[in-house]
Amino acid sequence: MKISVNWLKEYIPVNHTVEEMANKISLTGIESGPVRLGEELTNLVVGHITKVEPHPDSDHLKVCQVDVGESEDIQIVCGAPNVAVDQYVIVALHGAHLPDGVKIKRGKLRGQESNGMICGLDEVGVPAQYMPKEFENGIYVFDEPQVPGDAVYDLLGLKDQMIDIDITPNRADTLGMRGAAWEIGATYNEKPSFKKPVLSDDKVKDINDVTVDVAEKKLVPDYLLRELKDVKVGKSPLWMQRRLWNQNIRPVNSIIDAANYTMIEYGQPIQTYDLDKLQAQNLTVKFANDGDKLKLADGEKSLNHNDLVIVSGDQVLGLAGVQTSVEAAVDENTKNVLVEAGVFDGASVRKTAQRHDLRGDDSNRFEKGVDEGIVDEALLRAIQLMDQTSAVKEISNDITGNFTQAQPTIIKGSISHINHLMGLDLSTDEIVAILDRLGFSVDVDGDAITVTIPTRRWDMEIEADLVEEVNRIYGYANLPNTLPAGMETRGGYDPKRELANKLRDILLGEGLDEVINFSLLSKAEVEAFNTTNSEHTKLLHPMTEDHEYLRNSLIPGLVRNVAYNQARKNDDLKIFEHARVFHRTTGQDRPSEITYLSGAISGNVVADSWNTTAQSVDFYYVKGIVEELLSFTNADAEFTFVATDEYKNMHPGQTAKVLANGQVIGLVGKLHPNYQADHSISDTFVFELNVDMLFDLNAKSVKAQSAPKYPSISRDLAILVEKNIENGQIVADIFANGGKYLKDVNIFDVYEGKNIKQNHKSLGYHLEFQNPNDTLTDDEVEKAFSLVKDSLAQKFNVEIR
């Protein structure tokens, strides 16, 4: 909300710079900053066009003689299509400075001398989208005669000083000039004064051509209408227009501008309808029917049964508190007007505005809350302005659809408790004076106080709110500095977080980079890697289709990262993410949050160099990273990898489940070629581990041991085995039969092809035996080695080579 200092002066004395005021307001807890419009503007004056002739060498240029208050008229060449004799316009004289560093100089345009420039509003700093539409493609023309040579800055508000207040959701009372006047006045111990709007008694008639029915009274506590008869719609006065465009609102006509002006003044949105364009002489506030259409200037919006609408017969006049239709819009031909002031449920307005992407000034105020105690007064003020600017003949009394008498909030507290919470020792008079500056009424009974809060401050409910207000106005900077008292709390992470951090450090040590992704995915993404068969959790009001569902896997986000980088020729990637996913079983209302650790690797893992050959990532490289992670969990569990083809977007021949004591805790493998093609990425390997399940595993009891004193003995074993036999099965059987001195088994050779039986493979293993307490003999080793070979031949029908 931008607070005009000139406007503010109508309510409170203002004798401070805009910078000082913005700083002081910020110190009360409402962030604000100074805005000085048009600081760069110079040499802009009113000009009176006395003569216009066609340019001899141009079809569209005109040579104008302009009175700018000097002894003689000056000549200016102008190309605006709307330039004409006897217009009062904005003139930038020789040496004038305009926005964006533009400087005006004397010169010649196609041989004709030009001593300045006749300007449009957009050329002097008013954004084109907020200036009156009639001047979009031409110069600005004053409606009334002005004094040639006078500066235009005050006339057009080009150099207004403003305070830009960053509104927090609980302080929507400052979304109106009157509420801002209370807030700013309190910081300077100045109470604002406001004039009550009044109407001419001879114009208010007992007319009632329209009836109103509010079907959803819980969502619409207040809904008031008034009729205006025999209205002459025209332009609003310049003082009103300039205040509107400085608030980023385009002036339209005297009726609509008065409604928007009231919204800025009171913080209460006002809507207007052309009474003669209504389909029926009745207004109803109800939920829309599915398929109803809201007609807007740029198209139609299809409505549903969740949208609260205002209708006349079958005609949808608008979304309540959000947007009005163009069907009954007030224009220059309007003769009779219906004016609306209402209060609509903030949650309903917010959801509707988000659903249809129609958030604006009205919805912003209803979402945060409006003062329910000034609805009728705001309507009266709007009518007053319309009467002043549109020559209204007759005005109806209030037509009430629903009205709820707003009651002030009563808060009880005590002086001693307020002082205790603030750490101060303010007197009763000092605290009462601070509350009085805010417009609160205070009754004192000894130490107890009873504070009556006006309806404009609906954010206040409990005694703690009083403490905050006293603190703000007294000044946070004036609070005494004290050291915290009490027992110190020992810092540190909980055990689950420590495990996650340890795994994260391991991946960083492996050369992987950490990424952070959104927790919201599209429907296709949550279906792509739903390995745990989780129910999808959809947001009620998603911002976009790409962010509709809570993620059930970290892999889709990593795939996005890979695609983004590879599209920019960054092909060698090693990334991981440690975050939560959301799992929901059938019938569960709220999803469970589970911590996962996932990674994605593509391209080369070893770069090409003078002494090395480039090595691309493969399944076993990624599996090795996962094995190292599992080894650092210190879990007393048997980790195994089981090949699988049940994940549709994983390669069926290069994917494995990760099991701990037979329970699935994750996966590792290559993305399916079709999935990679759909996402425009090259070969990529991924892994995913459930950190919560790893944490729940029992920990090993680790004991330190001295280095072995006795040498080890190794044996190599080469076998021929069928292709469908997995290496893990072989290794497990070797350990089961190798005896207590078998310490390690490593596969060092795999061969398939020439001189090997069909559907067979040759595997080579290195076995290491060691006795920590004595020297092993060949007989002991051979005995264990024979048992290993015999078991393999019996269980897997291997051939010893």
UniProtKB/TrEMBL annotation:
Catalytic activity entry: tRNA(Phe) + L-phenylalanine + ATP = L-phenylalanyl-tRNA(Phe) + AMP + diphosphate + H(+)
Domain B5 residues, every copy:
406-481
Q: Name one GO molecular function term.
A: phenylalanine-tRNA ligase activity
Q: Name one GO biological process term.
A: phenylalanyl-tRNA aminoacylation
Q: Per the UniProt record, which EC number(s) apply here?
A: 6.1.1.20
Pfam families under this entry?
Answer: B3_4, B5, FDX-ACB, tRNA_bind, tRNA_synthFbeta
Instruction: Give the matching SUPFAM superfamilies.
Output: Anticodon-binding domain of PheRS (SSF54991), Class II aaRS and biotin synthetases (SSF55681), Nucleic acid-binding proteins (SSF50249), PheT/TilS domain (SSF56037), Putative DNA-binding domain (SSF46955)
Q: Give all residue intervals belonging to the TRNA-binding domain.
A: 38-153
Q: How is the cofactor bound?
A: Binds 2 magnesium ions per tetramer.
| Any GO CC annotation of this UniProt entry | phenylalanine-tRNA ligase complex
Q: Which PROSITE patterns match?
A: B5, FDX_ACB, TRBD
Name the cofactor(s): Mg(2+)
- Family statement drawn from the similarity comment of this UniProt entry: Belongs to the phenylalanyl-tRNA synthetase beta subunit family. Type 1 subfamily.
What is annotated about its quaternary structure and interactions? Tetramer of two alpha and two beta subunits.
What protein am I looking at?
Phenylalanine--tRNA ligase beta subunit
Protein's organism? Companilactobacillus heilongjiangensis
